[in-house]
Design goal:
Length: 223
């Protein structure tokens, strides 16, 4: 018996309006989580290079825990585990944003640490010699240079976090993959639907990549 498969373009096209309903959730979870994660990354990244051990060690522990465990386990713990502890259910959308924030925050912390430490110490000495305080020297001289070097790895983390949202269908978040699963359950067109889902993810990540390259070029041009 010969097996023949023919791609159903009409089924793929018909699925697009339904799948697009998941795009806002994907963007909200990823960019909302990344915004919080960026703040966490700055805080814990700077704490991780602090000379005081009681500030450095908590930051190091946070970074290692969330870098060393899968994000799927993290979101399952937040959504299913924490309610047992606090006695109240957690909204799936909030759980997804929290997981992206905590996970990306750990990776961004390392990006911040590496970016700051890549700047020559002579820059700090030069700022102090001009009469600036250490805080003024850091935020006026060190941070702008470090941030320009952080743009590529920050962009990579953004793309990873967008793709990570596909795992959150397990907790019922109505993002792209979840919308695809529901549509497939009614139409039995898995190949075509997941092909469209992949294309939509690719469009989102390519758009972010182009934006980041533009920002990187402008940053280099301003050096």
């Amino acid at each position: 018996m010969e097996f023949q498969f023919q791609f159903d373009w009409q089924a793929a096209i018909n699925s697009i309006p339904y799948l697009l309903k998941g795009v806002p959730y994907t963007l909200l979870i990823s960019f909302g989580g990344l915004a919080i994660g960026f703040v966490l990354g700055i805080i814990f990244g700077l704490l991780s290079i602090n000379k005081k051990w009681f500030l450095r060690w908590p930051a190091t522990i946070y970074i290692e825990i969330f870098r060393g465990t899968p994000i799927l386990v993290q979101v399952l713990f937040i959504f299913y585990g924490l309610p047992d502890l606090i006695g109240n259910p957690i909204d799936p959308l909030a759980a997804g944003i929290a997981a992206i924030a905590l996970n990306s925050g750990a990776y961004i912390s390392e990006v911040v640490r590496g970016g700051v430490q890549s700047i020559d110490r002579g820059q700090t000495e030069a700022g102090l010699s001009l009469g600036l305080s250490r805080s003024q020297t850091f935020w006026s001289i060190i941070w702008p240079q470090a941030f320009r070097r952080m743009i590529p790895p920050l962009g990579n983390q953004g793309i990873v976090s967008i793709k990570d949202t596909s795992l959150f269908s397990v907790i019922g978040v109505g993002e792209l993959v979840r919308q695809g699963q529901v549509y497939i359950a009614n139409t039995f067109t898995a190949f075509e639907v997941y092909f469209v889902v992949a294309c939509l993810y690719l469009m989102i990540t390519l758009s972010l990549s182009l934006l980041l390259r533009l920002l990187e070029r402008r940053g280099l041009a301003s050096v």
